Structures are given as C-alpha cells and as structure tokens.
C-alpha cells in the first residue's frame, strides 16, 4: 500500500478514515510514560526505564547545552551544576535571614495544625510533639529584601571523579547482602556521602533516593537486610516514602502537594499512619510545610469582625521539598523586586519605542515603563520580541534574548533584529548557556548580568529553579520580558512559571495579533482553542494516514520518513522529526527508532548500541535534550556532533545520556521545529493525548505534517475536552502577597 502524501487520501484531521478500531493497547506504552509530566493527579512512579528517565529528565523537555560545547563536556556540565549549587546556597542564606515564618491563613485544626506546629518546632531546633494545641499568631509577610548578589565564580577545573573507592566498596557489600544490584553502588555512595555504607545499612529505604528505584524494590531490600525488624509501619519507611512521593510529584510538575493528597498517596503505599510519616519527614528537615490562603480572583476582601480582627479565610496546607520551596520563594521575591522598582522610561527607551511598529511597539512601550512584561503568541509572534531586541541594541541598551533550545536561538537570530547567532558577542543565546556562564554578557562585580533588558522566549518551558536563577541574576531597574505560546506543553521541571504569572496578573500582558500563516497555522490555532478543524491544504501541507494497529503505524511511519515525504516535498529524512506520545509500546520511541535505524542507518550498534551516522537525542542534564549525530567512538567515549558542535560523552555515561533520536516525544521536541513532522498516534496512546500535547506535536512542522492516525475519535475528544492537568504551585499566592494585581 502506498503511503506517498500525494496519493494518500487527505481527509482532514477532524474526519479520519479509520476502517477498523485500534488493537488492544500494548502494556507499558504511552499513557504511563514520562512524556506527560503533568499527567498524574497524585504522584506516581514513572513506567519508563531508568535510562529513559535519565535521558529525558523524567519528563523530557530540552534546553540544550550551549553552542560550542565540545570535548570538555564533563567540565561544562560540572560548571553548570556548581553554578546551580552556589545559587541554591545563596537562596538558603536568604531563607535563613527571614525574621518570621510566612503566614497566609490562620486557625487550623486537626492534623493540619499538628503539621504546622511541627514545622515551627523544627525551626526552633526542637523535636516536634505528636500533637500541639497552641498556635502562635500569624506574622505579617515581609517585604521583598534586596537580593544578596553572589560574585561571579570562575568555572571550576576538574572536579573529583566521584566517591572514594572504599565508600563505593562498602556500599556494594551492603547492596549484595540485600540482594540489590551492585551496579547502584556509585550512585548510592554519591547520594549518601562518605558514610554511605553505614547509612544504608541503618536505613535501607534510603535506596529510594536513587532514580529508578521503586518502593516495592526498596521494601524487598529492607526485608533482606532487617529481617523480622522490617515492617510497613517502620518510621524510616514512612519518612522515605514521603520524600519519594514528593520527588515523584516534582517530576509531574508540582512544587508541593496538598496535605490530603500526600497522606492519601502514603496510605495507598501501606503506610499505616500517614500523618505521623509526614511529621517525621518534617522533623528531620526532609520536607517543609506551608499554609496558603485560598484566594479566588475577584473575591471581596476579608471583612473586619466587631472586635477588630479580620475574618477567617480558608487555607490549604502544602508539603514540599526544600529545593523547590526555596526556589519558588526566591523567584517570587525577585519578580516582586523587578515589578516594584522599574527604571526610568525616558532616554533610550523613548528611542526604542519610536524604532518599532505594530505589536513590537506595544511591547516596547510596556517594557519602557515596567520591570516585568509578559508577551504571548505563536511562532510568527516571535518577530515582535526580535524587533524589540534589535531596537534596544540600536538605542544603546544592553539587551539579550535567550531561548529554550539552540534551534530556537537559530530561528530567533534569523529574524529582523535578532542578530547573527553565530557571531561573537551574539545578542541571542540559550537559558542553559547563560546560567552556565558559557553565553551572555558576563556578570558585574555584584554577580548580576550586565544587562538592561533580558528577553526570554519559550517562556512556558521555564521551570521554577531555572526561572529563579535567571531573575535573581538581574539588577534593579533591568527589564524582563517573558514571551511564549501559552498553549504548548509546560516545563519538564517542577512549576508552571509562565502560566502562574499570566494568572496572577501582576504586570502588563501583551497578546500578539500576528497569526501563524498557512494551513498548518490555521490547524494549530484551532487546536489551541479546542477545535480540531478540517483545513484546506492544496499543497498537501497536512495529510492524514489512517492505520489499524501499532504494527501498521510503524510500517507507514518508516515509509513516510524514508520515501514519501522526501519524494513529494524534497525534505530529507534527517530534516523530518517523528513524534509519538511515549517511549514504550509497539509504536513508542523505542520501537520507532529501531525500525527507522534499520531502514535509514543499519548497523551492528558496535558503539554501545550506536553506529556512526545514527541520529541521537543527547541529554547533558535531566530535562535537557539536544538532537545530534554519532561521529565515532574511542577510549574517551562516544563522539557526537550536536548543533554543529562536537560533544564527547564518557563511556560510563552513554547509557544514561544518549538514546536514538529519529523518534522523539513531544516534550523532547518542544522548542524546536523541523521542515516536516510525522506525528504517530497508535490506538493504545488515546489516554495519553491532551490538547497541549496535540498542539505541541502538530506545531513542530514548518512545511508539512503527516498524522499517522489510529486513535479514531479520541483525537478530536482530547483536543476539545482534555486540557492541561493542573499543577500544585505556590507562585501566585507568594506574588499576590507582595505585588498588587495589575487588573
């Protein structure tokens, strides 16, 4: 059967011909894979293998490494990790400077009051009691303090290669006694420190700190080590499971969990006293608890009682990991600082506003008078921040624009005003490159970026930690413009920064009126508002390929990439991306990559499963993915070419960081665009589909989109009814306490 686009019936995505229903879903396929970080309402363990989890950051995504990253891959990654560690230490110092706890509600009762009392006891250095009846009066929230700038740190030289051999050996012996894989020894030693062997022997559930280890595996390990002393009500087990569930929640995008959701998840894991497990985690400082007021937008202000006190407001109790709590509070403080201390709008900013037209002029006027501005729009709307960047630089302002991926940087640099991204001192870069110090203008004596204007494109992909580091790097009076398409998938990391800021309405919001052109633009725009429309595609810009089962989906996908699309549109296979909902199953990325490799670059896989010429997805850090190509391999590791730059992946890291890359998930592909895209929707993927997923996947195509369609009416239903799953975050509450709503 021919699958050439010029001969395949183009029925339009709203009315696919599906002669037969899809086959029985394959076990372990898309619905439970990490490609949907916002999928679970309660945290759940990812189903993908540890290799996929490490390569995709448990939720794919991809701010790629800085251009120019080469044989020094080890030092570049360590430099970024060191910068993040220094930033977190600075955030912790700021947290310690707070005079009083942050209170947003009053008068809790039951387990919620006990947990808040436990937090206060921990902060005072005491062991919390099981039940605390007295509750101090709430303290007013402090004003956002002046940030403590850290001096610019030089990139560290070679860091220690890992934990000491004797530490690894002691861990290996404990793992062997418990029947756990000894290959985990280096990871356990690195996670638990010098006394890792003793710590693991004393608390076997510490094994849950290692990515990919599930509770049932840790339980079996604990039973083998502890024997009769091991039980489901062990305090150590409850504490470890509390932290593990919060980690899983972070992988799903939450920065914290509501207390009832957390205790319910603990109960499902056979924890007999969930409240005590949470209190134990709080007492040991492994989690933090918060109470936030439940404020509905537009609701009247609390009334004053006859005795002069304010009426009680409903609150929610949240529990989260310290790293995300501190990052979210630091981000709120930094954003409030920018909003509350804008610089002068005269001088160069008048020239900026006069030098652009249309939507760019509106954006420039907003940036002239405000420290924080949000800009929304599709692919064509990127021309507006590009024009603002060019006008600001022409007016003598120090301006920089950063994107989520090197491909985004390339597309921005090609626009008027974007500059040449290949030149020295380029005005465009990537978020990861700026945070690592490999791109951008450098930092001043106080550690702030030497900028008057920072424009962040692909803003929905900002996780809370990256956003906090960027915002805290801006000096007072600098302008921050966050620009992006709010309909795409959210960040792979915890938080939903852009969506929270749009909802909080604490700064100007400029919506672009520039639509994406052509049939593809019309199709994607309709999906964004929940409508899967039939579009006129005279040039076969959109083609539907009906399939009956997953096997046929793989077969037709290979034909499209290798034969039909190149012949009909002149798009080479290496310029076509295949997107599927998940890694597992008969038509997931693993199966599709195996079939595409066999057709496009067959070989024995002599370089650890790879051959020269293979397309790969390289993940230098969790949540970051960059496309590349295998060049060769030697004793140093696997040699790749990624976005024109050489990269060497050490042999011991290849399995975790490199996977075949002909087929990607939507989270891996977000932030990039290709001349042609083939979106594969096997019948067993119906439950994984949502409007943001479809919008993101279909929007990766520039010239041609083929949809290998096996989900019948589930596609239209997902677009119309399945919005993004909610994420539990605190940013809106924290911001509203410091910044009045812009209206």
Features:
alpha/beta, globular, 743 residues, 6-stranded parallel sheet
Question: What do you see in this structure?
Answer:
The structure is a single chain. α12 packs across α14 and α13 crosses α14. It contains 26 helices and 19 strands. By secondary structure, the chain is of the alpha/beta class. The strands form four sheets. Strands 6-5-7-8-4-9 form a six-stranded parallel β-sheet, sandwiched between helices. It starts with 49 loop residues before the first helix and ends in a 7-residue tail after the last helix. The N terminus is likely disordered. The radius of gyration is 26 Å and the shape is globular. It is 37% helix and 13% strand. The longest helix is centred in the N-terminal third of the chain and has 24 residues.
Assign the structural class, choosing from mainly alpha, mainly beta, alpha/beta, alpha+beta, or little secondary structure.
Answer: alpha/beta
How many beta-strand elements? 19
Bin the helical content. 25-40%
Distance between the termini: 58 Å
Query: Approximately how much beta-strand content do the residues carry?
Result: 5-15%
List the uncertain runs: 1-51, 57-74, 98-109, 122-160
Task: State mean pLDDT (0 to 100 scale).
Answer: 81
Q: What's the total helix number? A: 26
Largest sheet: 6 strands, parallel
């Amino acid at each position: 059967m021919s699958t050439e686009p010029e001969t395949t019936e183009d029925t339009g995505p709203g009315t696919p011909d599906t002669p037969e229903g899809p086959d029985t879903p394959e076990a372990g396929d898309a619905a439970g894979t990490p490609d949907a970080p916002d999928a679970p309402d309660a945290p759940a363990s990812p189903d993908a293998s540890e290799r996929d989890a490490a390569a995709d950051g448990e939720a794919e995504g991809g701010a790629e490494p800085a251009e120019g990253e080469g044989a020094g891959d080890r030092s570049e990654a360590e430099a970024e990790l060191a910068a993040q560690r220094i930033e977190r230490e600075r955030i912790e110092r700021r947290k310690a400077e707070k005079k009083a706890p942050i209170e947003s509600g009053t008068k809790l009762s039951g387990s919620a009051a006990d947990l808040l009392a436990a937090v206060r006891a921990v902060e005072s250095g005491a062991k919390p009691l099981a039940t605390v009846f007295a509750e101090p009066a709430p303290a007013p929230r402090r004003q956002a303090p002046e940030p403590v700038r850290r001096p610019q740190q030089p990139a560290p030289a070679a860091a220690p290669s890992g934990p000491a051999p004797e530490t690894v050996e002691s861990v290996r012996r404990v793992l062997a006694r418990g029947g756990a894989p000894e290959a985990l020894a280096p990871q356990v030693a690195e996670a638990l420190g010098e006394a890792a062997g003793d710590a693991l022997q004393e608390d076997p559930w510490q094994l849950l700190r290692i990515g990919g280890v599930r509770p049932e595996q840790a339980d079996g390990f604990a039973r083998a080590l502890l024997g009769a002393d091991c039980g489901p009500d062990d305090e150590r087990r409850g504490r470890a499971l509390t932290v593990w569930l919060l980690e899983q929640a972070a992988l799903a995008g939450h920065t914290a969990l509501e207390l009832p959701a957390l205790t319910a998840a603990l109960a499902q894991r056979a924890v007999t006293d969930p409240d005590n497990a949470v209190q134990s985690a709080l007492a040991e400082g492994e989690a933090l608890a918060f109470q936030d007021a439940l404020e509905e937008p537009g609701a009247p202000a609390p009334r004053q009682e006859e005795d002069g006190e304010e009426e009680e407001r409903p609150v929610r109790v949240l529990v989260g990991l310290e790293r995300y709590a501190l990052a979210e509070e630091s981000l709120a403080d930094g954003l409030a600082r920018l909003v509350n201390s804008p610089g002068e709008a005269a001088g160069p900013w008048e020239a900026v506003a006069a030098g652009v037209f249309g939507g760019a002029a509106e954006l420039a006027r907003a940036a002239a008078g405000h420290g924080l501005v949000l800009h929304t729009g599709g692919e064509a709307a990127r021309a507006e921040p590009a024009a603002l960047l060019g006008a600001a630089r022409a007016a003598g302002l120090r301006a920089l624009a950063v994107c989520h991926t090197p491909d985004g940087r390339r597309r921005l640099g090609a626009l008027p005003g974007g500059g040449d991204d290949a030149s020295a001192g380029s005005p465009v870069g990537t978020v990861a490159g700026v945070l690592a110090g490999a791109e951008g203008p450098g930092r001043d004596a106080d550690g702030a970026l030497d900028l008057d204007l920072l424009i962040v494109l692909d803003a929905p992909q900002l996780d809370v930690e990256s956003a906090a580091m960027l915002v805290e790097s801006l000096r007072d009076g600098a302008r921050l413009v966050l620009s992006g398409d709010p309909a795409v998938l959210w960040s792979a990391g915890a938080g939903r920064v852009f969506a929270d800021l749009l909802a909080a309405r604490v700064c100007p919001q400029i919506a672009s009126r520039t639509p994406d052109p052509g049939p593809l633009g019309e199709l994607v725009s309709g999906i964004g508002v929940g409508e899967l429309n039939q579009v006129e595609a005279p040039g076969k810009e959109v083609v539907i390929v009906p399939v009956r089962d997953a096997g046929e989906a793989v077969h037709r996908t290979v034909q499209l990439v290798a034969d039909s699309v190149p012949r009909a549109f002149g798009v080479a296979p290496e310029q076509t991306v295949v997107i599927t909902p998940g890694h597992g199953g008969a038509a997931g990325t693993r199966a599709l990559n195996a079939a595409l490799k066999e057709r496009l670059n067959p070989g024995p896989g002599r370089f650890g499963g790879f051959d020269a010429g293979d397309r790969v997805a390289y993940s230098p850090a969790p949540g970051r993915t960059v496309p590349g190509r295998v060049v060769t391999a030697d004793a140093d590791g696997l040699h790749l070419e990624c976005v024109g730059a050489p990269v060497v992946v050490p042999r011991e890291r290849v399995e975790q960081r490199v996977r075949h890359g002909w087929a990607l998930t939507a989270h891996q592909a977000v932030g990039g665009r290709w001349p042609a895209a083939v979106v594969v929707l096997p019948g067993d993927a119906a439950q994984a589909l949502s409007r943001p997923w479809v919008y993101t996947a279909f929007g990766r195509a520039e010239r041609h989109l083929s949809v290998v369609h096996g989900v019948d009416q589930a596609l239209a239903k997902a677009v119309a009814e399945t919005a993004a799953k909610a994420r539990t975050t605190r940013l809106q509450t924290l911001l509203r306490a410091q910044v009045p709503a812009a209206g």
